[in-house]
Design goal:
Layout lengths: L8 H8 L20 E5 L6 H15 L7 E5 L6 H7 L8 E6 H10 L10 E8 L2 E6 L7 H10 L5 E4 L5 H12 L8 E4 L4 H9 L4 E5 H9 L3 E7 L27 E5 L5 H15 L2 H9 L3 E6 H21 L5
Parallel strand pairs: 1-2, 1-3, 6-7, 6-8
Antiparallel strand pairs: 3-10, 4-10, 4-11, 5-8, 5-9
Helix pairs in contact: 2-10, 4-11
Length: 331
């Protein structure tokens, strides 16, 4: 299995002031893992990355994928880039893993001008996706997405969007949708929030015209008839019990940017080391423990092993960089 190039990592480490740690002399082989696995969540305890890391640790140990320990640590800050800077110093160590998701971490790298390119790490697997939705209040005059975008095209400032953080996945998704419909990205009227309840409150109050976010966070309000779904995002298939088309159905497939949650290893691993970790994570994915984690967090399976995940990271990096540049967040 061919790894993504790691030629940029040394430059990144020099610029960030980090020293390259010593490579481990442990060779995975058929006995991998011969010692405990350390999983880094580059976000706060209780957040999405932390939940994924702890779900992995639980599935690996409780369902008997490995006989060694799997421990989780947190290094939050700057869109994941503080943890990322620490993680690349583990170069060559196959017992170090880091969880992430593509849009959030790539956006953090661009916004914080991180000298570390995510593609310098060793891709292990894409694991999860979260279905999203474009929403309006139940009393909104908009009953379809095309009408909303037509008004937005005529008056971009007249349509207010609410979602998660500035430059985050929700903001990127709105920008991608605007770009697909020929609306100047730098004229979007987007109100950033901490996501979740704050964004929903602004939408329900009528302070914002439309909202975008994870479907699982607003399913209660949809079921109660308080919010109307204009389109399903991050999916090519309709969602059961929700009468709404996907962006692909509506002809906006280019804006269907599904952030993929996954796991990476440090740079500098051999092909055999990479494959040993991929095989371990593949076994974890097939456990009841991991399927329970997916159900509990309303995640869908987003399996992309090894270099397939690496290619998706490159694709998302290029798109995220272009969108954030257009938004003026890459200055």
């Amino acid at each position: 299995m061919k790894r993504i190039s790691t030629i940029a990592v040394l430059l990144g480490l020099v610029v960030s002031g980090c020293a390259v740690g010593p490579a481990t002399d442990a060779d995975p082989g058929s006995d991998y893992p011969a010692r405990g696995i350390a999983i880094l969540a580059p976000g706060s305890t209780g957040g999405g990355w932390d939940t994924r890391a702890r779900g992995m640790a639980d599935a690996l140990t409780r369902c008997g994928v490995i006989s060694k320990d799997a421990t989780v640590s947190n290094t939050p800050g700057a869109g994941g880039t503080i943890g990322l800077a620490a993680f690349v110093t583990k170069q060559g160590d196959p017992y170090q893993l880091m969880v992430m998701d593509t849009m959030t971490m790539l956006g953090g790298i661009v916004r914080n001008h991180s000298p570390i390119d995510l593609t310098t790490l060793t891709p292990i697997a894409g694991l999860t996706e979260s279905v999203g939705a474009i929403l309006v209040p139940a009393g909104s005059p908009y009953t379809d997405l095309k009408a909303l975008l037509a008004d937005m095209k005529a008056d971009p400032q007249g349509v207010s969007w609410v979602g998660g953080s500035l430059g985050g996945p929700d903001h990127i998704a709105v920008a991608a949708l605007a770009d697909t419909d020929g609306i100047p990205v730098n004229r979007i009227n987007y109100v950033p929030t901490g996501g979740g309840g704050e964004a929903t409150s602004l939408l329900l109050s009528g302070a914002s015209t439309a909202g975008i976010g994870t479907l699982a966070e607003v399913k209660g309000q949809i079921t109660a008839g308080e919010l109307r779904v204009l389109a399903i995002t991050n999916s090519t298939e309709r969602v059961a019990d929700i009468d709404a088309p996907t962006l692909v159905e509506l002809g906006y497939g280019a804006a269907n940017l599904a952030s993929r949650g996954g796991v990476l290893a440090p740079p500098g691993l051999s092909d055999d080391q990479q494959q040993a970790i991929v095989d371990m994570v593949a076994k974890m994915r097939d456990t009841d423990c991991w399927r329970e984690t997916l159900r509990q967090n309303n995640w869908s399976d987003g399996w992309l092993p090894g270099d397939e995940f690496g290619r998706l990271i490159v694709e998302h990096r290029d798109r995220v960089t272009a969108i954030l540049t257009d938004l003026g967040l890459n200055a």
